[in-house]
Amino acid sequence: MGERPLPTGGALDGQVAVITGAGRGLGRAYALAYAREGARVVVNDLDADSAASVVDEIGALGGAAVANHDTVAEPSGAGRIVAAGVDRFGRIDVMITNAGADRRGPALDLAPDDWELTLRTHLFGSIHCSAEAGRAMRSQGGGVIVNVCSAAFYVGTPTLAPYGVAKGGIYGLMRALAGELAPFGISVNAVAPPLTATAPALAFVDSLADMGLTAEQVEAMRSSMPQPEDVALITVFLATPEGRRLSGRLLTMTKDELSVIGPPDGGLPVRAAGERWSLEELGAAIGSLRAGPTTA
Q1: Range with the lowest mean pLDDT among 114-128, 154-168, 179-193?
Q2: How far apart are CA 159 and CA 291, in angstroms?
Q3: Are 127 and 95 spatial neighbours (Cβ–Cβ below 8 Å)?
Q4: Which end of the chain is more exposed for a tag (fewer CB within 10 A), N or C?
Q5: 154 near 212, Cβ under 8 Å?
Q6: How far, in Å, are 23, 126, 130, 231, 264 from residue 69 at the CA level?
Q7: What's the confidence (pLDDT) of residue 1?
Q8: Global pTM?
Q9: Between 255 and 43, where is the model more confident?
Q10: Can you spell out the DSSP letters for the chain?
Q11: Side-chain half-sphere of 102: how many Cα atoms within 13 Å?
Q12: Catalytic residues, which ones?
């Protein structure tokens, strides 16, 4: 599929976005979506080749990006990730905490190290990167933090117990930070991407055949999964002036359906008028949500 060139006058012109775990899958989709809207991007990934490849893709589109290979699992690594944006582009406007590694299997068979790996990367990685970004944004007068969450924390998916625990912690982190950082002009929200056609998700769906699903059921799940670019738009919206009015929300979006999950606005999903959302239509759909977190 050929990549379309960057537009002029994008919705995020002049902004600097740091995206962790951006070398592949959803992180790559977020990075490209931000670049297409005019943002400069820090592409963080432990895999240097993957990060460099995404930087090259953004450059080919006419955008600006820099690679970073630090770990999110340590506070010092998170500090260097944020510094990469400040040093190269002078500021940081958006942090998307997407990085994470996980070990899967029956909960009673998992070793302590399996739990620790998942919690250190997903949960503590989000804590460290949100804190470092928050400090930088506080000093510059505002910003946007987007924590990548998952429905796994309240659905309870077999073989994904550590992942669900980590994502539940990320939801709690988001709710707390939304209240604490609001006085500094920093919005904090979470997105819960649906099961999307990334390599790990496709492998997980294939593994369900070993748990009793038929080949037809597995294929039906695979064919219904949206592509990463279909769900990246919500992260772009949260960095727009209208999106910055929201804070303390957990949102999920497929290519044609938007839902607010949990308090205070949970309810029936809103569907796009066409096959996919536009940035303008998305703003109209959720613009009525009351800005700011609640204690509900």
Answers
A1: 154-168
A2: 36
A3: no
A4: N
A5: no
A6: 10, 16, 17, 25, 37
A7: 37
A8: 0.87
A9: 43
A10: -PPPPPPSS-TTTT-EEEETT-SSHHHHHHHHHHHHTT-EEEEE-S-HHHHHHHHHHHHHTT--EEEE---SSSHHHHHHHHHHHHHHHS---EEEE-------S-GGG--HHHHHHHIIIIIHHHHHHHHHHHHHHHHHT-EEEEEE--THHHHT-TT-HHHHHHHHHHHHHHHHHHHHHGGGTEEEEEE---S-SSHHHHHHHHHGGGGT--HHHHHHHHHHPPPHHHHSHHHHHTTSTTGGG--S-EEEE-SSEEEE-STTT--S-EE-SSSS--HHHHHHHHTTSPSS----
A11: 21
A12: 163
Token pair in block for residue 136: 């930088």
The amino acid at 124: F
Assigned token pair, 240: 């727009």
What is the residue whose two structure tokens read 């500094």? 184
Per-residue confidence band for 215, with pLDDT thresholds at 50, 70 and 90: confident
* Residues 207-227, mean pLDDT to the nearest whole number: 80
Q: How do the domains of the chain map onto residue ranges? A: 16-194+228-286
CATH class of 16-194+228-286: alpha beta
Q: Mean pLDDT check: name the lowest of 65-74, 244-253, 276-285.
A: 276-285
Residue at token pair 């990075």 = 31
The mean pLDDT of the chain is 88
Question: Could you tell me the sign of the dihedral formed by the alpha carbons of 13, 19, 22, 27, in that order?
Answer: negative
